[in-house]
Amino acid sequence: MLIVAAVALIDKTGCVLLSQRPEGKAHAGQWEFPGGKVEEGENVGEALIRELREELGIDTETSCLAPLAFNGEGDLLLLLYACRKYKGVPTPLEGQTLAWARPDEIFSYDLVPADKPLAAAVRDLLS
């Protein structure tokens, strides 16, 4: 089973960060919550901290990650966490486009299939 960890990164205004998948990747052009695969020997918190540093150039701590929702389809398990406390300014380090979305705007983005069921939990948390 492939385990993927993602984060609903929330700013001080209550908006959530979405990342658009770059050309050349599966689901290119679609939007997602930032994150990635949990590597062998990592726990979910470690994976999210690593992914946020690699993808966005920001730092956070495990204690700032709150489990929010999950989606299990086939041999994919997607775990979504909420994070309100982080250091740095999210910067697109892997060719992706970033957007801050208000809770009522999340569904106007063309989300990757695995993130669609999780978007309602994010919207409900922030509304």
Number of helices: 2
- Major beta sheet summary: 4 strands, mixed
The N- to C-terminal Cα distance equals 33 Å
Q: Please give the order of strands in the largest beta sheet.
A: 4-1-6-5
- Give the SSE order as H and E letters: EEEEHEEEH
- General form: globular
Give the CATH topology.
Nucleoside Triphosphate Pyrophosphohydrolase
> What is the subunit arrangement here?
single chain
Our estimate of the beta-strand percent is 25-35%
Secondary-structure content class: alpha+beta
CATH structural architecture: Alpha-Beta Complex
Give the proportion of residues in helices.
Answer: 10-25%
- Number of DSSP strand runs: 7
What is the average of the pLDDT values? Answer: 96
Number of domains: 1
CATH C-level label = Alpha Beta
**Contiguous runs where pLDDT drops below 50 for at least 5 residues:** none
Radius of gyration: 13 Å
CATH superfamily: Nucleoside Triphosphate Pyrophosphohydrolase
Protein name: 8-oxo-dGTP diphosphatase
Catalytic activity: 8-oxo-dGTP + H2O = 8-oxo-dGMP + diphosphate + H(+); 8-oxo-GTP + H2O = 8-oxo-GMP + diphosphate + H(+)
EC number: 3.6.1.55
Keywords: DNA damage, DNA repair, DNA replication, Hydrolase, Magnesium, Metal-binding, Mutator protein
What this model shows, in words?
The longest helix has 13 residues, at 44-56. A hairpin with a 2-residue loop joins strand 5 (65-73) and strand 6. The protein has two helices and seven strands, in the order E-E-E-E-H-E-E-E-H. The strands form two sheets. The chain has a four-stranded mixed β-sheet with strand order 4-1-6-5, with helices on both faces. The chain has a three-stranded antiparallel β-sheet with strand order 3-2-7, with no helix packed on it. The termini are far apart. It has one domain: Nucleoside Triphosphate Pyrophosphohydrolase. The protein is of the alpha+beta class. The model has no long low-confidence stretch (mean pLDDT 96).
